[in-house]
Write a structure and sequence with these properties.
four-stranded antiparallel beta sheet, flat, Pnp Oxidase, Chain A, single chain, 3 domains
């Protein structure tokens, strides 16, 4: 033991007789991220939600928190020294992709809505179409249905009152499209033919771009198979489509979105990360545990007691 530092002497004495001091290390908490994303769109001009829409399977999701700082320097002995770094801006945003290509997700992608448009049934319809060889032409286009009609029962085509040979064209009933064969014998480029058909009644779901910002609340419900479950909730976000959508390929289609957290209410945080924790016990559960068995074991023993009372005792003539 040293006179100038008694504590140091005691430490050296302890190490000499016991070896190194034990080091306590907390176990690393690993997480395999899995979860579900829900979006509750606000009614226009309000912060009133319409219920949370499950986005569907989301192969990827990530968060970003960006902070902008203002540095304050002072000069000491001719050198600029950083005195303080002050945060001046904060942005909370994120991205996710989904392979749930539903009409609701398509509507979110176009920031619009999906509306049903009725196609009334009609008999003996005639439509004049100017055609060219080797081209497809959509039947039933109108101001109300620019994309055309579908589910048509084709009857015939005529040119100047004469029937067009069936070999001159190909007709698709489901899509309502007609193709003029390149080697058509009667039809020349620029001719106007009259198509005779009947339309079946149908209901078509149409999505149109809304050209508005989508605002609402976003929720992430953690379903981690490994690691602590941490949920996230953004009370107010603006949702944007992010990236493109592959229409054709050998992989599953995916749609990407990006969101930015808003701060309309100063009393509400931009994002909440929370763990629901463990649920409290009911008085009945506390009584079960107090009896010396677990809540999980209780149903088994309850069944055994029921069998003893209502089967064995009843067979032995005991009153039940």
């Amino acid at each position: 033991m040293t006179a100038d530092c008694p504590a140091r002497g005691l430490l050296l004495l302890y190490l000499g007789s016991h070896g190194n001091l034990p080091v306590s290390r907390e176990k690393t908490k690993l997480v395999v991220g899995r979860g579900e994303i829900y979006f509750e769109q606000f009614l226009p001009g309000t912060t009133t939600g319409q219920g949370e829409l499950y986005i569907g399977n989301t192969p990827s999701a990530d968060l970003t928190r960006e902070i902008t700082y203002r540095d304050i320097y002072n000069v000491r002995n001719g050198v600029r020294v950083l005195d303080m770094r002050v945060p001046t801006e904060e942005t909370n945003n994120g991205r996710f992709t989904t392979d749930n290509i539903s009409k609701e997700i398509i509507a979110l992608f176009y920031s619009g809505g999906t509306e049903p448009i009725s196609q009334p049934g009609a008999e003996a319809v005639e439509e004049t179409i100017q055609v060219w060889r080797g081209r497809w032409f959509q039947i039933g286009r109108s101001a109300a249905r620019p994309f055309g009609a579908a589910h048509l029962d084709f009857v015939s085509a005529t040119l100047d009152g004469d029937p067009v040979p069936a070999a001159d064209y190909t007709f698709e009933r489901e899509t309502g499209r007609i193709y003029i064969n390149p080697n058509a014998t009667l039809i020349e480029n620029g001719d106007s033919i009259v198509v005779h058909y009947s339309a079946r009644s149908a209901l078509v779901l149409v999505t149109e771009p809304g050209y508005v910002a989508l605002t609402g609340a976003l929720r992430y419900v953690s379903r981690n198979p490994v690691g602590d479950k941490l949920n996230y909730f953004w009370p107010d976000v603006t949702l944007f489509p992010q990236g493109g959508k592959v229409l054709k390929g050998d992989t599953w289609q995916e749609i990407g979105f990006e969101f930015y957290a808003n701060s309309r209410d100063p009393n509400v945080a931009q994002v909440y990360a929370y763990n629901n924790g463990g649920a409290g016990l009911t008085p009945g559960e506390e009584a079960i545990i107090g009896s010396g068995i677990t809540v999980e074991e209780f149903p088994y023993w309850e069944d055994q007691i029921d069998t003893i009372i209502n089967v064995y005792m009843a067979e032995a003539g005991y009153p039940t």
